[in-house]
């Protein structure tokens, strides 16, 4: 495993904050939690853009927990733009290294997608390996592995984002904002 995807030492403060974040209860309306997660992703990326890391452990814990939700994960994936591809690559790589067991698969898949899009298929596959170690049943991992192995053009991700992201934003924010 390369230093780019290897975990950082366990962060007890982050683990404490993770224990405080409630999981989404899908028996109730998940939309407020999904909205909270999408807003946390926006804040996370803004903090990372400013400092090259995120010091707010509560925010990191909230992002890691909410990324377990497929809508929030897809929102995060759709938030990537060609102009900010490197920022997202670095942010997801940093978050992957911070993520403890049980929170790795969604972040690893986000990193894999942006790594592949920027032409680094070896790192994309290593990120998927990390996802498989964390959650062998995480569906997106298998899907991305098939996509990468079939040699899909990297620009396909940008096209999919442009088509799907507005729908995800509508589902999460009910059309109230477009990040």
Report a brief summary of the structure:
By secondary structure, the protein is mainly alpha-helical.
Major sheet: none
Question: SSE order in H/E notation?
Answer: HHHHHHHHH
Mean pLDDT: 91
The share of residues in helices is 55-70%
Instruction: Report the structural category.
Output: mainly alpha
This entry's quaternary arrangement is: single chain
Please explain how this structure is put together.
Helix content is 68%, strand content 0%. The protein has helices spanning 12-20, 31-51, 57-66, 70-78, 85-98, 104-117, 121-134, 139-150, 155-173. Helix 6 packs antiparallel against helix 7 (121-134). The chain is mainly α. Mean pLDDT is 91; it is low at 175-179. The chain has one domain (12-170). It has 9 helices and no strands.
